[in-house]
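Researcher: Next entry in the queue.
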Amino acid sequence: MNEALSNLDHREKRVVEAIRNLGGEATRREITVATGMPRTVISEVLTELHTRQVVTDGAVVASSGGRPARKVKLNERVGHLASIFVGGFRTRVALGHLDATILSESYFDMDVNVGPTKILDRAIAHIKRLQKQTPGAGELLSITVGLPAPIEAKTGAIVAAPLMGSWEGFDTKKYVSAKLGVTPLVENDVNLIAIGEHHWSFPNSEVLLAIKIGTGFGSGIVIGNKLIRGSSGVAGDIGHMPTTTPSDAVCRCGRIGCAEATGGGWAMVQAYNSSLASGEKPIESIIDFVELCRDKNSRALSIAREGTVAIGAAIADAVSLINPDTVVITGATRNAGDFVLATIREMVYKRAAPLATRDVVLTGSSFDHQSGVGGGLLMSSNQVIGTPIDEDEVQNFYLART
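Model: Structure for this entry, 402 residues:
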């Protein structure tokens, strides 16, 4: 742990977390309101944090009367965070400040089934390149790895991986730690999207359901500012709920009739390639499939519309079950056309319980690909400066808002 951030007491952690939640920079008054601590205590804590160089002076705020107030901001040189977000075909990497804002990012395309060492080695190479391009960022404080599979929270082990068979039994924590010298947090990809969307786009949501529709599809759930995993780490795995109409489609999980067997990107790619005549070029990924849809390819659009109905039905069932106030859609498939969001809305309002849809906001993500890597930075930030809870619970809590 960085020396400046080590051994912070509970009050100091609360103040640092409050500044982070207020955008990385705040006035003393804003910090006092956010923490509920007396101004004298805030002054004492900020003096100590200044001495440790955890915070520095920020911008001067104009005042309607009296002396202008100067903001306090988190020191960008105290260290940086990293996030690796592995998708079925595309992996994104980002560096971030202590306040979890993205400092720099990059991505590369590689099928997840090439195996963990190839994916992680490439991602780590991207991190090191970004670090060289960002002088003055300080040391690496924490890193989070998001994987498209259910994750056992305490160990970071993959619970089940129909998309990632070559990853089963692989120790991601040990491998990344050996390469970067920092033991990573390992989390399900859609859970990271959920906490990213909640923090930056929907901070007042009491029950948020985040949906990723890409190579596979699933959901992440935040209720009362807490990330919900379920007892085995598979909460929100809606892609393996049964479809609305009888189907003999075989899913990657081995079952017949899962929603993902029709609505998953892998299934739509498979269906498109099966429709090709001899000599026609097959496609490789959901990214290729989405491009066909955007180019108005009739076969691709027909497959996408059928798949989106299955996606919408699964989301509708989830809406009936958890009664969210916010449903946010992200992922590559969403970009196939306006019909994707329209079809999902239609299915949700037609199939879900009427009371569950009365006040729900169903929308596309405004951050799209950044919500996943951003959620990883946020989880790392919470590990570094979060409230002092048991280490095994660090990942179980997204953010205890002050």
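Model: The chain has 13 helices and 13 strands.
Researcher: Noted, moving on.
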